[in-house]
Amino acid sequence: MLDQDVIQNPRASESLRWWESRRPRYNAGLLVSGIIAFAAYAIVLIHFQDVIRAPSPSEEDGFSGFTLVLQGFGYLFMMFVANVCFFLGPLTELWFRPRNVDAYRKTAFRLGFWCSVALPFSIPVLLTLLAVFYPAYWQTTGSR
Length: 144
Known about the structure:
The protein contains seven helices and no strands. It is an all-alpha fold. The longest helix has 38 residues. The protein is elongated, with a radius of gyration of 21 Å. The termini are far apart.
């Protein structure tokens, strides 16, 4: 019965159309932030290479072709997960039924967009904090 109400509710289909029209912008933001976050990650590794123990000649560096491809596919998978989570926008709109739908949509989209775009930067930020405030971690973790 709930499924029929959602299908017959013109507001639900309008909501889905509104959210879907913003998905390309959301994905573009995820793609750009992923590339910039990876560049930030590389910069952190290069800048703190004296803190983060440099690999010995027998160890592989962090930027081999295989590693780049693996990280790229990992990020594509996370973009898929983010797109599944994108459906929380129209779902929460149906659950909360806000009085001012336009304001709710804009606020919810902005909040979700900026949280999703900021998330890839957590790795380089945490790595920087670790290298600056706890450099002994790198010497105590064994071979890297």
